Structure formats: structure tokens, C-alpha cells
Amino acid sequence: MSQFSSEDEAELQSLLRELLKSVKDRISGAPSVECAEEILLHLEETDKNFHNYEFVKYLREYVESSLGAVIEEETENFTRGDGHAIGTGQDTLVHAVTKRTRESTQYKQMMQTLKQTMMVVVESLINKFEEDQLKKEEMDRKSQHEQSSSHYTDNCSDSDSSFNQSYAFIKHEQLQVIAEKLDPGRPREVRLEALQSLCYAPPSDVLSCESWTGLRRNLSAALTDPDPELSDKVLQFFAKTCSSSPLNVTKDIYSSIAKSLEAHFLYHKLSFPSGSTSIDANRPDMARLLKQMRLMNDFQKEVTTFWIRHPEKYMEEIVENTLSLLALHSEQGMSSPGSEKSLEPIHLISLLDIKATWFKKWMHGYYSRTVVLRLLERKYKSLIVNALQQCIYYFDSCDSVREETLEVIHSLEHQQIGPARRTLYTSKELEFVYFVHSLCVLGRLVMYTNGRKLFPIKVKKRRDPITLTDLVVILINIMYQHPKSSCGETTHADSLSPTNLVMEVLRTLCDRTECAVECLYKIPVIETLLAPVITLLKGKLPKLNSLESALTHIADTLARIATTERGLSLLLYDRNLVSAEGESISAAHVIVQFTQRLLAKELHVFSELEIPPAVSGAFIFVCRQMYNTCEGLQVLRPYSLHECIAKAWRTTSSMSERVPTPVPGAPPAMASQELQSVAAWEEMLLDNLLNFAATPKGLLLLQQTGAINECVTYMFSRFTKKLQVSRCEKFGYGVMVTQVATTAPGIAALQSSGFVQTIVVELWSALECGREDVRVVHPKSTPMDPIDRSCLKSFLSLVNLLSSPHAVWELLGHRALPNKAEYSLREMATSVLDLMDRLIIINSDAKIHSLFNYEQSHTFGLRLLSVLCCNLDSFLLLESQYNLSELLLQGQRDNVTEPPSGEGEFIIDGLSVERNHILIRIGTVGGPSERRLPPRALQKGNDPYPWPIMSTYPLPKYYILDVPKTLRTKQESEISAFLASSKETERDASWMDDCRRQFCKIMATKSNTLTGYVLADLLERVVLHLSSSSTDCFFPPAEYKVVDHSVKTRSLSSVEQLGVGISLRYGKFLKLLREDSEQDLCLLLKHCQEFLSQQRVSVTSELSCFQSGYPGHDWFASTVFLLMHGDVGRSLSLLLRFSRLLPSAFLWPPRLHSSAHLPIEIAQSGIHPIYSCTAHYVEMLLKAEVPLVFSAFRMSGFTPSQICIQWLGQCFWNYLDWPEICHYVATCVIMGPDYQVYMCISALRHMQQDILQHTQTQDLQVFLKEEPIHGFRVSNYLEYMEGLERNYRSMVLSDMRSILPRSS
């Protein structure tokens, strides 16, 4: 057995000390010694670095050297079988060897030696620690004694020497004697000796003595004594007392200093330096004032942390003493700078605290802010008047003074009072620090409501009082007058730059809504901001010292204004600016015109100036804050800014592409810095171009630029880095991704960029891979919800991505499932088709065995399928390609028990419940009162799932509700009577107005009678009347000869055939169709296809929607067929006439699919006018009319346009009951196509409470897609829609008419 030598003990001591240092924080944080011991005992379990400590390594080596031979010997004994038999409690070789080793003599000897050695080492460590502590205390005593006996030479009153005095106990009688010795009548030596004794005394003893009042009076007298040694000693005592005394005492000391300074400035006029003279901080009288002011300022900044714990009167006393001192301002001081005047306390506080940190801290808390503002209003308003006056002086000062500001800034930026620093300060420097201090005070003051109430303020040499608006205008003009930088220096970045300080104030105001409304959202402010821009548009150079800096800051401020509703409205609609041409226009027009000129480089005044891209980018960003909203795009659209940005991007992109490959030895074609700036400019343009995708109409404009793929790729690169859209955006790219995914070109761009693959891989990782690396320490909880919280985000992302049928067509159309014979466990899904194959259509054991979490993953897939099938067109595609119904039915049939005899019972589990829900959802059609869907939750009791399980067709009758009977009353005959009586006047221009009035009247009184044949007759007559009028016809007449035998040869696609089946089931359920109506509906659809195909252009595109006609089912034609009770002749006649009217463009989606009537670029875009027009105005009006719902959509990452496209695309089937669908069609035909927008707004308004609730539960997308619109009746909202018509028709209807070139 090895023994420890003295060298070993020394090494052990060193290693143990290092170990203790490493765990010092953990031990010191323990609440007791016992807890500290527990921490050390369990260090191996809690410290991942345990085995890396040198002490642990040393012990391991020692144990190995001591017991290695024993362990080897015992191991050999057991493996040969020579040892004792291993009992039941020793079931492993390791346990047996361990037991025998611990019983050995060597082990006992090793433990005894180790224990004795460690006791010696620990005792030695403790002794050494105690010696070190004694030495340290001795050194501290010596140091303190030297400091207390030395002369106080530090110019900083709050330095360490002020707070680290040695204390000696003192009696009250001694303090009484000291107080008497400090009487001003005593000799200097006596007073100095008394002060020296006082400095040694503990502050608590001094402050608690009975003679403190008299002592304080004598100390205040000594503070103003001409003898610097006396005043320094008093200040030293005050500094020490302030650092260790309660507020009830320190406020007295603070008051003494403040009153002493106030008396000094009142009775001793200090001249303000003028010309080449300056003040010297080392001059005895000035040094004393600065020290006292410095102590006051430090106390001001610290007192806010604890004065709330004391009575408010203490705080009021401190505030009032401060304001009383700083409000001192002589009459000479009120004159303009440069004239003879006095040095005031405000100048000294400005020199010590240039940015008014003390005032910012006092204004931060409501507790002190209330008192400060009350005193400023009642007694010390002159302080604010003087600050405002100083800012006006700086603004009015001559150019030569402003040019010297640059030199002043550099000299002051790092200034500090002290012996090792500069001590001379000129009048210009004092004026400038006072200006900066005043600007910071005013900037903080106007942040608060009661601070703004101090305005308007009357100042000298101004006829009218200065209002808040005037102040902001003055500040902006100060920003414009920033001095030019010399030698290319970027002085505007200096911390004391006037521009920087003003911008800090403006940004603060922009970030606070109330401040911005009262201070910034004013016409004079906008006029001041845009004055240089308008001057440049007129071809003149504005009087700005730094054009680039000023323009950048103007754009930054305007962008912040445009981020709020009030600010955006001000920029868009207030036409109070005079343009370069002399007409009154809004700020938005000025900004976009200037941006266009910058991009096109058409501003001739810039020919000699090199304006960097940063300025252009800043103004594009302002425009972007406008055009990424529906209302902003409405104003900016005439300028075609998307084309300007796209053109600039192409130019920049071609520049970067033309850079040749560098050749060794040859000079570079473009400098590295220039290359970086070109790349940054290109990225900036792409970023701004991308933001057109924030709105439906903007997405169409982006697609027309041809840069949608590059923009989406750029978005994907930022999305993967989890970057914000911009500095003004609170949300990420979720909403924009959803907007892009609604259209065919958008989803194609997302697919090519790799975005879809990333979403799928993230989902697969969360669903199947889990957190393997931490599962041992933190085992993953068993998911209780159908979709685990860890997968919810991925689920919602997929729902957003696949919400539109365009996305399903593009990602899954004409794509067969892999259906592999074997799947590797490491094989991840990388596409939506893979998800369909691996998670949804699980039709083989190989797919089941390839999933680690089969039930959870398959449930996820079925929930996703349920949401997808809510869109009828998406369901038809999936059903036609993958035969979903049969797959789900087979899954139900397989999920039964296997009894010895008879039929088995259905096994009720999560998968069977989800399959049953999907089967009923896709097998029935109807609104909220026309079908019943089984819930997904089980019930308590003996029968947890009482609802019938579907395993074969037909559907259980339980899920099919009875059709409500239609009432036939007098009102119905009134409509018939109106139609009959108006046959002769039908061609009159006033007939349509009468019809609308009659329609509104019936809808308001007894809308449930407006259905059946009466509604069919009404629609026929209205369409006939409108199509017979040349003014009401929107599309040119198209000749179509109805020949049945020619169209019968056409064949319907599998999607259309499935759609026919759904339509027939619904019609028969409603008792509107006969059993033999299938051929008639097929014939109608074939005629519609033939008719519409004659009006389509040939489009060469890889998009699936252009491969073979309209990719979905014609739900509108099916709706008309049901309306006409299966009469194919009436239906076709109505549709042919209806095709000439504007409402057909929006109610009948196949009508304008790649239509020849549209401009060729729109026809080839793959973006339907229902999206770019109707959905665009739904979002625009929703923001104005139902802002809470609009915000809920934004927060959920979903868009109103997506759910509206689904509602309108399938004519509200499955969302409204049949009578309401009829009323929707009738309303849009009779009242106008813009009622389609108002209908969506009304539906979303009706669902407001549900939408807000499901936004909180993070399932808004799923709720809107799966749930019908309960309780919604068109008649109840017709009056509301008429109100929307009065407010918005001129805009909405005119834009709907502009879809054709001739109507623009």
C-alpha cells in the first residue's frame, strides 16, 4: 500500500483548493452548512465536469494503484470458479468482485491512509485560510489609517476615500463639544480639528445625537467657508454620510448642499465666459462648486432606487430643493447667447450630467414623476421655459456657430472633471452642453401626458406660444442643420451629435402611440419632414448641411410613422402638401414620387452628388410600410412601384453577375467593399420586393414582375434564420408564407425554394425522431392530445401551407404514391407526397413498421387529412387519386375484435374515432343544420362512443338530418306578383331599382320564404334584364350554339365525376333533384366546359392548374342546377346569360380561369381575380370594420383571404345551409358583385367571438376550416352590408370592373 509523502500532501492540498474554487458559487449559494454538504456529496450526479477535475483524476489513479491487483485477482478467482458461488443478491460478476474487494485488507488500509492524509490536508487549508484573513485585516487597517490621516486631495467627492473612513466610537457629550467647536466664530484650527474628529465618527452616532440640528447648521456654514480645507472636510463627511444613512437624514444633507449652492449663486454672481475666455475647473471656488454639484448629481441618480420606501414628503423636499436651485436664471441669462451673462447652476449640472440622466430617472417612475410635473407646473415652469429657450437659441444661431459644433462635440464627448482631465471649458462648450441637457429634458418631458400639458409655452422673442407641434418642428430643423463632417468622418454617429439626440427623441415619440398622436401626427410636422424632398422634386437643392444624413433620418421617421394606423392614415389621405407641380396631394404621393426618381436616378440635382443606395433603400422602406397594407397599396398602385424596384433589382443583379472571375496577378474588376455594397443593395431590393406578397393584390403584382421565385428563396433564407420581416414588424414570415401558399405560382415558388421540404423535415423530426439525446435524463411525456404540443406548430404550418386547393393540386396533382415494399427506419419524409404515403395512406405492414410512433403519427396524418378534406376541391383530388374512402372503410373493418364465434366488435381507439369522423365528413354534404358530425372526444360511462361507426356505405341515418320544410305564405306570392306585374316595365331602367327594393323588403321581413321556384324565377328575370342591357353587360357577347350531341362526346374527369356524385347526394337530400338527374348535371357541366373553353387562351406553364382546363369542380354550376330543381335547360340558359355580367367573374370561378378576356399577363399568372380582388378587399375592409378579427388572423399566422377563397370557391357548401347559399347567390346577383366582399366581412364579424377564442387556443385555422358558420343568416346582415356598400362601393366595384383592360 502506497503512502503519501509531503510532496503528495502539498499536491493534494493544491488540487483540493482548485476543486473548491470551481464549486464555490454552488456552495456559497447554499442556505445552510447541511445543504452545502449535500451539494458536495452529490456532486458527481449534478456536475457534468466532475470527472474532469484534477482532484478526482488524482484520487482515481490512487485507488487504481492501491486496489488494481486485488480486483484482478478476485476477477480471476470468480471466472475460474474458485471463488464462492454468487448468491441471488449478487447476480453479476461486478457486484461480487466489488463486495470482495471492499472486504479486503488492502481496501481498509487504503481508506485509513486516505482519511488520515485528507484530515491533514484539510486542517492545513483551514490554517492557511485563517492566516490569510488575519493578514488581510491588518493590511486593511493600515490602509484605512493612512487614508484617514492623509489630506483629501481627490477632486471627485464620491470617490472611494469619501466612503471608506475608519470609524471610532464617540459619545454624545463629545459630539456636543464638536458641534460647539464648529461654530463659525471659532478659530480655523479649532473648526478643522473638530471636522477631523467628526470624520472619524460613525455616521449613525452623529445623526442620532441630540445636537444634530445645531451640528448641521454649523456644517452648512463651514461648507460655504472660503477656506477650501474646511469645505472639503465638510463635503467629505457629507459624502460618507450619504452612502450609509437613511433618507430621512440624507435628504437634510442634500438640502443643505442645495441651499448652500443656491445662496452662493444668488449672492456671488459668477461671470459666464465670453470670447476666448473659459472657466477653469481647478480654480478653488469653481472646484468647490463642482464638487458639491457632483455629489448632488450622484445622489440624484441613486436616490430613485430607494425613496419609494420612505414618506412622500422626503422625496418632495429633495425634488423641490433641486428644481429651486436649477430654476435660478438671471435676466441676463434670458438674453441670446454671446451677450454678457452669469454662470448658473444649470450650466454646472449640464457639464456634469450632459444627457440629464438624473431627470430621466426621476421621470421614469410614476411615484416621483407626479411630484416633478406638479412642481414644474405650479412653481418652476421657468426651468422648462429656459430649456425650450436654449433649444430655440441653438436653432436660431448663425451658421458659423453651428459649424463650430463639430469641434465642441469632439472635445466634450469624453470629457470628465478631474486632475488628469482637461479643466478649461469655453463659452461655446458650456452653451452646447446646456443645449444638449435641455434637449434631453424636453425629450423626456413630452413622453408623458402631464408633461405635454405644460405646453404651449410662452418664450421671449416669439409672438405666439410654442406648442408641441412647434417644438417637434424646431427639433427636426435642428436635425437638418447638423454640421458637415470633415475628412469623411461620420460625426453624425457621435453620441452628442444634435442629429443623434433629436432622432432619439423622435424615435421615442414614434414608439408611444399617445405621444405620436399629439406630437408627430400633425400636418406641420409632415410638411417639415417632406420639405427637403419636395424641394428636390422641384429640381433645387435644399439648405441642408448633410443631405445624405438628413434624407436617411427623414425616411427613418416617416417609416416609423407609417407603422401605426393613425400615422399611415395621415400619410395616405391628408392632402395638405403642395407637390412640385403645385397641386395638393398627400404625403404618400410625395414619398413614392421621390422614391421613383431615386430608383430611376432622374433627380438632376443629384448629378454632381453621389447619393448612396442606403438613401434609396430608406425611402423604399417607407413605401414598403405603406404597400404591405391593403389600403396603402390602393394609394400607391398607380405608380407601379413594383416594376421600378424590380427593374432596379435586375440592373443590380446583372452587375453582380458580370463581375469576372479574378485572375492571379490581374487587378480586381471591382473592389471587395464595392462588391459587398452591390450585394447588400441587391438583397435590400429583393427584400422590399418580397413585401408586396403581404396582400393578395400585392402578390399578383409581385408575380407579374417575374421575381417571385427569387423573392421566396430570399424569404426562405431569412425564415430558416428565424429573422423578423423588418425592424417595424412584430411577427415573422408566417402570414406572408400563408399568403404566398394560397396561389399556384406562390406554392410552386415555395416548393422550389426548399421551404416545403424544410417544413416536412421539421415535422418528421418532431413527430418521429423526438429528443433522443436527452430522453434518459428527461423522458418524453406520453402525449395526451391527438396532436402533441411539440408537433402543433408543424401541424399548423402544414395546414396554412395546404389550405388552398392550388397547393394540393401543385404538390400532389398527378403524383402516385411510392408504396415501397420496405422503408428504412432512417428514411425521413421530405415532401408532402411522402407525408401522404407514410402518415395518411398507411396501407401496408411495411409502412406501419417504419414508424416509431405509429398511433401518434397516423393520428397526426388523419387530423391533417380531415382539415384537407374540408376543401371540397382538395378532397376530390385526393379521392380520385388515392381512393381515400375505401382505404378508411377498410381501416374500420380491420379494427375489430376477433371473438371465437360471430362477428367482432369495433375497437374504439383514437384512430377509429378519427377515421369515423373523416368518413362522415366526406360522405355528407350540408350546412350546420343539415348534417351531424360525430365528435372526436369520448364520453364517460359504459358506452364511451355511442355514435354509429361507419364501415360500409350507405351512411348511418343518424348523421343525416331532416330537411326543414319551406313555408309558403303571402310574402312568397308578393315576389311572384311583382315579377308578374312588372313584365311590361321590365325593360325600364328603374325596374332593377324596384327589384332591389322588393328583394331587400322580403329579406328583412320573411327571408325564409325566398327560396325554391320563386327564387329561381327571380334570378332568371334579373339575369335576363341585366344581360339585355348593354350598360349592365360587362363581358362581350360570346356566340354559343347549344347542341347536346356535340358535347355528349366530351368526358368528365374523375374529379368532376366525383363532384357530380356529391352534388347529386346534396340535391336529393334537399329533395330538389330526381333520382335520374345525373345525366342532366353531367350534360350541364359539359356545356359549361365547352362554352368556357372557347374563351380561354393557351398558357404554356408547368403549373398543374394550366394542364387541362379548370382543375376543380364547378360548384357554382352545380348550385345553379340545384336552384333550378335539376332543369338543365333553365340552368344552362341562366349561366350563358349570366356569363356576360360582372358578377360571373367572381361568383363563377371557372369563368375567368385563363380567360381571354383578362390581360394576358393576368391570365397566365395563375392568380384568380377572386383572390387578387375580392380577397384583397376582404382583408382591407376587415381591418377597418372588424379590427380585432383582423389582428387575430395576424397573430395566428393565417389570412382572411385563405378562408374566404375556400368559402367562395365551393359556394359556401358545407358552411351554410342551402337557403343561405341561395340568398348569397341572389344577393350578389341582384345587389352587385361587391356584396361578395361584404358577405365575407359579415360572416367573419358574426364569428368574432369564436375567432378570438380559437386564436387563444391556437387552432383558428382548424376551427375555420372544419366548423360551419353557425347561426349566420344573410337576411340578418343585409342592412349591415348596405352600410358597407355606401362606404366602399365606389372603391370596390370600380376595382372589380378594372379586371378587364377596357375597363381600366
TrEMBL record:
Stretches assigned to the BROMI N-terminal domain: 12-138
Record carries keyword Cytoplasm: yes
Short name of one Pfam family: BROMI
Domain of life: Eukaryota
GO cellular component: cilium; cytoplasm
Location in the cell: Cell projection, Cilium; Cytoplasm
Compositional bias (Basic and acidic residues): 134-145
GO biological process: non-motile cilium assembly
Nucleotidyltransferase in keyword set: no
Main localization of the protein described in the UniProt heading: other
Boundaries of every BROMI C-terminal Rab TBC-like domain copy: 868-1299
InterPro entries from the UniProt entry: BROMI_C (IPR055392), BROMI_M (IPR032735), BROMI_N (IPR055391), PHAF1/BROMI (IPR039156), Rab-GAP_TBC_sf (IPR035969)
Keywords (A to Z) from UniProt: Cell projection, Cilium, Cytoplasm, Developmental protein
Start and end residues of each stretch annotated as Disordered: 134-159
Biased amino acid composition, Polar residues: 146-159
Domain named BROMI middle region: residues: 173-850
Record-linked Gene3D superfamilies: Ypt/Rab-GAP domain of gyp1p, domain 3 (1.10.472.80)
Function recorded in the entry: Required for high-level Shh responses in the developing neural tube. Together with CDK20, controls the structure of the primary cilium by coordinating assembly of the ciliary membrane and axoneme, allowing GLI2 to be properly activated in response to Shh signaling.
Protein name: Protein broad-minded
Organism: Cirrhinus molitorella
